[in-house]
Design a protein that fits this description.
single chain, alpha+beta, Immunoglobulin-like, 2 domains, four-stranded antiparallel sheet, 4 helices, 17 strands, elongated, signal, membrane, WxLIP_HBD
Amino acid sequence: MKKIRLFLFAILFCTLFIFTNRTIATQASTENVSVTPIIDNSDITDHFQIIAKPNRMYQVKLSITNFGVGSVKLRVRPTNASTSTEGTITYQQVISSGQNGLRYAFKDMTQAKNVTLAPNQTKEIAFNIKTPAKSFTGLMMGGFYIYDLSQPSSPGLKVPVWLTEDNKAVGGVLVLSDVSAEVVQKKPFINVNLSNNQPGSMKNVTVHMNLKRKGLLELLHLGFKPVNVDQTYKNIAPNSTVPVAFDQQSLPVKPGIYQATGTARSGKTHWRFSGSYRITQTQADRVNKASSNLIPDRTVMYLMIVLALLLLIFFVVWGLWSQSRQQKTRSVHR
């Protein structure tokens, strides 16, 4: 009997041990990871800054440490800087050449790498950066985005890499690009997208934007209500989209033509914007299906009920009038 109890106890202990180890292993994330650029002889410690020449190879190194209790597999992905709706510089999006006037993409100048780190392990990783064969002007704001391969949608880490040939500042220029719909934390948004199409960063840009929808319901003041947004962007990346976000307040996105008008100001420089863009049914359906807790828009249904009641009242009145007229006609003929 004792042997059976000991055997069952051993099985239970092993099961708990395996389950505990598996539980611990899933807890690893970039929250427990530290990334440090290895920079020699420079006062800059938070990013790489390279005075580059065409068609040259430059090497940069990152020191990555896992302070977590479980192992972690990371992806270190090169990309260009982009601008968030909050007015900050991010590196989460994959940026390709041609976007917003970008001549060269940083992801084409070096390669992404995977790295696996055991608990309390540090590794040094080197990247070779090959500059374009032709000269470029302004600032190329590239960087490495580091994220957990098992949790790709979770927030990651960034290490900027700034490249310039002449180290001369270039001013940014804002133009109206388009209107799009997207999902943010399972909530629908409509973005009026501006574009900084120059290789120069911008700071402290204030944007005022108005958005309205063109349609029959809007003419009757029953559809999409015109909305305004005032947003200050502390930093805008070179050659990047500048999204101005309109929260749908849990209402579904409606397809149709949207008109955006607005202004932007940076110091003494002013811009004015005006344009009409279409959100297709496919785009609206994609956003609405990915959103949660949407409030159904029953405006059309209520309008149809009112029209049906009006038609019913009309036919009832017309029937009574017709019946009364027939009775008067019969009385005259008698």
